[in-house]
Amino acid sequence: MAEGLRERKKRETRQRIADMAMGLFMARGFDNVTVAEVARAADVSVNTVFNYFTTKEDLFADRHDVAVDLPVRVLRERARGESAVAAFRRDFLDAIGTRDWRHGLNPGADVFARIVDDSPSLVARMRVLQEERETALARALADELDADPDDLTPRLAAAHILTTTRALTDYALRRQLAGEPWESVEPGLRAAAERAFELLERGLGALGELGELGEGPGEQGEGQDHDREAKSQA
Question: Which CATH superfamily is domain 5-54 in?
Answer without folding.
Answer: Homeodomain-like (1.10.10.60)
